Amino acid sequence: QVALLDRNAEAGQESKAALGEQFEAQRTLFIPCDVTEPEQLRGAFKKVIEHFGRLDIVVNNAGVNNEKDWESTIQINLTSVIRGTYLGLEYMRKGNGGDGGVIINISSLAGLMPAAFQPVYCATKHGVIGFTRSIALAANMENYGVRINTICPGFVNTPILQSIDKEENMGQYYSYKDEIKNMMQFYGVMDPSIIAEGLITIIEDDTLNGEVMKITASQGIHFQEYSQTPFMSSKR
Fold first, then answer.
1. Domain co-membership, 17 together with 40
2. Strand partners, 101
3. Which residues span the domain enclosing 150?
4. Which GO terms describe its biological process (predicted)?
């Protein structure tokens, strides 16, 4: 059973219809939602619970590339991910009457390295990784029963790549669009299906918590290794 959230109602209905051809129509739900609007997002979570009766998996994957309107990029790419995670925990954590579950936040390889012509996008994706790893530690220490992980894909064949060709998205970095395209050609562009494969891996492997999964055209699915273990005091 899957609920889809998107501010693009047409795309959302098309996705629901496509799933409806494979599964029973009542097993999917589309909710128009702008993730930057706190009450809309909270209302969407409530509708999911009302429709399906429970919540087991949350995927926070709304994302944009807009260096010109950088405030909205922060709101969509980072703030909404944080809010979506907290809403998911509110419904799923065991100490609050939930049954546990898994939250997956979508970052990017740009969250692990600098991106010269997408500095704000890069900052938001670094933020997603830092937040996810930190809240995963807290969830473990507090016995929430919820695992929280992040996925960092390289270039993926989705509409966000088209934003590189638009001055209204790239702003002062528009003149560098060819450099970004050269990077895409060098590193390769992946089909979204491999990202879905990584997503399923995280959902099914209940040993994964606080992990940063990297997905690239050259190496496929693998994990970021961190040498330093964060200090953790014992639970009070």
1. no
2. 146
3. 35-223
4. prostaglandin metabolic process
Helix intervals (H) in the chain: 9-22, 38-52, 70-74, 80-92, 119-141, 167-170, 177-187, 192-204
Between CA 101 and CA 148 the distance in angstroms is 9
Straight-line distance from the first to the last Cα atom of the chain, in angstroms, rounded to the nearest whole number: 38
- For residue 229, being part of any structural domain is answered with no
Mean pLDDT, residues 225-229: 82
Our count of domains for the chain comes to 2
Q: Are strands 146-153 and 28-32 parallel, antiparallel or unpaired?
A: unpaired
Which 3 state secondary structure label does DSSP give 229? coil
Looking at the whole model, is its pTM more than 0.85? yes
The pLDDT > 70 percentage for the chain reads 97
Domain co-membership, 119 together with 92: yes
Cβ–Cβ under 8 Å, residues 52 and 27: no
Residues 15 and 86 in one domain: no
Q: What CATH number corresponds to the domain at position 118?
A: 3.40.50.720
Half-sphere exposure of 71 (CA within 13 A, CB side): 0
Q: Band the pLDDT of 232: cuts 50, 70, 90.
A: low
User: What average pLDDT does the chain have?
Assistant: 95
User: What is the per-residue pLDDT across 97-152, written as a single tens digit (0 to 9) for each?
Assistant: 999 999 999 999 999 999 999 999 999 999 999 999 999 999 999 999 999 999 99
Q: Give how far Cα 125 sits from Cα of 82, 89, 192, 229, Å.
A: 12, 21, 18, 21
Read off the pLDDT of residues 20-31 as tens digits, 9 standing for 90 and up: 999 998 999 999
Where in the sequence numbering do the catalytic residues fall?
A: 121
